[in-house]
Amino acid sequence: MGSFRRTSFGLKLAVRPEIEKVFASRLVDLIRERDFGIDLGAVHLRLPRSFGLCHGVERAIQLAHETRLRWPQARLFLTDEIVHNPSVNRRLQAIGYRYLGGRYADGTTIEQLGPDDVVVLPAFGVETDLLERLREQGVQLVDTTCGEVMTVWKRVREYARDGYTTVIHGAPGHQETRATVSRANHDDPFLSQRLSAYGAWIVLRDFADAEFVARFVAGHIEPDELCARFDGALSPGFDPVFDLQRVGMANQTTMLARETLQLQEILWRAFVARYGESEASARVRLADTVCSATQDRQDALRDLLDEPLDMLLVVGGYNSANTTHLVELARTRGVRAFHIEGVECIADRRTLRQWEPAAQREVPTSGWWPARIPTRIGLAAGASTPDVRIGEVVLRIAELAGTKVPLDSDVRATPPRAEPRLARSIHGQGNT
């Protein structure tokens, strides 16, 4: 079996200049210094007090670059996107990474790998059967799985050990959710402590799913109806009659925190109605496993939405769950919000391209630029969006506003007078 590593190779300082050059933005740092706002002619631009790259993503980027430096001659692979941001993944391709799965895959199979190859596991983690296959090939493994995700895995293993069915608030097909549910069904090849039993699981996407399960608990839904509705979101051999007697709650760490709590409340009330509060307490284990960075960004955006805004742009990968939830949050507050992947989506003051959830594709949108002058525009970003992508959007807004960024010199070329946030984090110790 090849090596398995979850920690830094001690090369943080060596990779820091390259990462800072590619992902940091002096402009964004200056906006932070100016109380998260900047005047661009008739446009006042506001950023939330928490946005962009989280520590888990920073750690994944750092380890990927350290791995390249540690094995300069080896073939390097990622099992799938390291995080859900196209600019980050394209950058890793540029320094030599190849992809075994997902939209960047080049056709290489796990069976074609050997002990001289290095495989990096993404921040979302991987399923245990994939991990076992990689272990059997003897490859060198570098694990960038976020600590917040691993906390959820620990909770799920506890549920399986104690005979509780895991109920996950998430998207059944999301990489993180697939990795999480596998921890209920299988031993982790790199854990010394094995599961004593295999646990059942069910994934609930939204309140409607939770209400459906609540109706089953109340005796209003037949088992075959439940299995049909959740086809593809249930553990193999799931028996609703048996497996929904005792449940433990968990979630995809990037979900809206308040929705997770409300979903748990729906199920809790159903168990109380059927069994009484005392017995329900023994049958239902509640948990809030939304990651702290996701929660911070959601809270910061709520604060920003309390200000008068004419519009909000949210920058991030279209398959980034935490980014799409920021857009949802804004729209539920009645704010015009547009989800773009980057500056290339902004054609002019008439048209931009944004993600349309209903159509599941990028669509052109007219009339996005606010008509009111002066105007206030909010700019938020998902947890896998580098500062440089945010800075590019700021410069484009300034251009459309007919002004220049009011700084002493070209921020794109000015050496930083203070370490950018990502560089400070990489330089520091104990990143999670």
Overview of the molecule:
With about 425 residues, this protein is of the alpha/beta class. It is globular, with a radius of gyration of 23 Å. The relative contact order is 0.17. A five-stranded parallel sheet has the order 1-7-6-4-5. Strands 2-3-16-12-13 form a five-stranded mixed sheet, sandwiched between helices. The protein has a four-stranded parallel sheet with strand order 9-8-10-11, with helices on both faces. Strand 12 (about 310-315), helix 14 (about 320-330) and strand 13 (about 335-340) form a beta-alpha-beta unit. About 40% of the residues lie in helices and about 15% in strands. Residues about 410-420 and about 425-430 have low confidence and may be disordered. The protein has helices at about 10-25, 25-35, 55-70, 85-95, 130-135, 145-160, 175-185, 205-215, 225-230, 240-245, 255-275, 275-285, 290-305, 320-330, 385-400, 420-425; strands spanning about 5, 35-40, 45, 75-80, 95-100, 120, 140-145, 165-170, 200-205, 245-250, 285, 310-315, 335-340, 350-355, 360-365, 375-380. The chain is built from 16 helices and 16 strands.
